Amino acid sequence: MTQRPNDTRLSVPRDRDNDYTPEAARMRREFVSGRTGADLSHTGSFSFDPAVTRGNIENFIGVAQVPVGLAGPLRIEGEHVSEDVYVPLATTEGTLVASYNRGMRILTEAGGVKTTIHERFMQRAPVFHFNDARGAREFAGWVESNLEQIRMAAEASSSIAKLSHVERYAVGPMLHLRFNYETGDAAGQNMAGKATFAACEWIAKSYPGGARYTLSGAMDTDKKHSQLNVLHSRGARVIAEARIPSSLLRERVGVAAEDLFRARLNSFAGSVMAGSANNGMHAANALAALFIACGQDAANVAESHAAMTYVRLEDGGETYYWSITLPALIVATFGGGTGLPTQAECLDILGCRGKGKVRRFIEICAATVLAGEVSLAGAVVAGDWVESHEKLGRNRG
Prior knowledge:
Blueprint: H1 22-36, E1 68-77, E2 82-90, H2 96-109, E3 113-124, E4 127-129, H3 133-145, H4 147-155, E5 162-171, E6 174-182, H5 189-206, E7 212-214, H6 227-232, E8 235-245, H7 246-253, H8 257-274, H9 283-293, H10 301-304, E9 308-314, E10 319-329, H11 341-350, H12 358-382, H13 385-392
Parallel strand pairs: 1-3
Antiparallel strand pairs: 1-2, 3-6, 3-8, 4-6, 4-7, 5-6, 8-10, 9-10
Helix pairs in contact: 2-12, 4-5, 9-12
């Protein structure tokens, strides 16, 4: 095969002694500027020592400065937060912060959002391989009989991870095991992977005749939506609910409770037709903006945005009950990107930085999602959705 002249690969430069310095970042910016002609003056303007990014990024060159807006106050009546909060939202979409701000005002004036966490687990799902289905069935019984030893092997890998339960799913000559862990204030994907590897190694050595496995059989659904998460939860299963007087809805968004209820029936049918992962309006908007502002893994929006909205008319149609259930909200207040400077500051705004704060953050996320549902649904039904984007959004001239 003839090599073309431009096939020579120029690697991104690195400093083998210490790659997390201002000089190393400048070296890479100059390298890519020389190759592309790009001006990286804004990318290279940051206020922290690159050393703090170790473990968060490789080949660091600078920052992506996403605007952060503030919405609120939002009154939350939860089990881990019971107060008015102000919510930082990082976005480039005009109208988003204004819309959430309006939804928060409505919910606060209605008495606040009630939040409830049902459960919170992180999974890793290995698959074990056998000659036939009966071998897989025999192994399933052995796993059940030896669950305590498996738990000890898994938990020996971490001072935080606690194995709650193991689901079993048989397919042909295979048995999928879905390990469910409590992971403290961390999101826990890596923690769950390390603990499950330790458990699988113990199983492979201890099962009579040995056992062959693949650490992930894809039933853990990392960074992907799945119906399994909707039914069994991944991350937190959290519910935000509110009762909003029809008079308040008419005053703030120009529509009555019965108008919103009628529209909900229509949109529910459309969601079923589309096979949507969310029968609500736009949970991904709130979660993406919160995730970016607060140092979460933004790819987890793929799982976290799944939601089920449930509504009903109460008090003869004068009160609108509105709830949204997030069955796979994956967040952290410790580890990952939560310790980076601007992200830590946004968590401080919420009172959510550090250990012991993850459930507070979960409740704030769910309440913020509900605020966005209220505002956007009202805008769509009232007919001022497009007008708002023309006035505040990307179409402004």
